[in-house]
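Margin note: ligand = zinc ion.
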Amino acid sequence: MSNSNRLRIAVQKSGRLSDDSIALLKAIGIKLNIRDRLLIAHSTNQPIDLLRVRDDDIPGLVMDGVVDLGFIGENELEEKMLERKAAGKPFEYEVLRRLDYGGCRLSIAVPNEMDYDGIQSLEGKKVATTYPYLLERYFKEQGINAKAVMLQGSVEVAPRAGVADAICDLVSTGATLEANGLVEKDVIFRSKAVLIKRADGELSDEKETLVNRLMPRVDGVLLAKE
Ligand code: PRP
Ligand code: ZN
Ligand code: MG
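Resulting structure:
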């Protein structure tokens, strides 16, 4: 897979980053014929293939060298990096550009009725999250003994379901928290989309040349939007 001479780029199939990432690729002149049900899309004017996958899979695909580039949120990237490091798997990558979309924050939120005087209020408590490594790193930095409970989804209902005392989840508008009787308390990570590349020296010369040709165009698009 990785020895294909077409540059492989991973993008989120559907979600927060999909539309903006595709729009950026189109804006830098890459013609794409995306058919909704297909995992792969071939560019018609560049030696580039697009892999449309779950965002959670993108950091690993880049770190394992299965794809050459990937568009991913920094939150997901940092979490997967910590997870793979702990598991003894390759966790290296290079950030090519920090992008201007996909902004969100990873925050601790607690039920409206909870007495909360700062992070020490979570001592001995359970916090539901999809980002246990980021959350446990934060607890450690703060010197708090609390437990991260891993949930892949529906994190916001965990306190009501009696599964956890609080949550740590992504917030952008705050609507999800509000709808679930939760209040945002501590921001533990601020995230934006980034374009990442396989670790240094792992791309063929042809691919490296192509990437180097594309990056000034990315800069042009970012600049034009400022
Ligand atoms: C995040 C998070 C909340 C929502 C918060 O999910 O888990 O559900 O966004 O956004 P809001 O503050 O605007 O309401 P996301 O859309 O990233 O989907 P995922 O949980 O499936 O990754
Ligand atoms: Zn996700
Ligand atoms: Mg969600």
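The chain has two domains: 7-102+192-225, 104-191.
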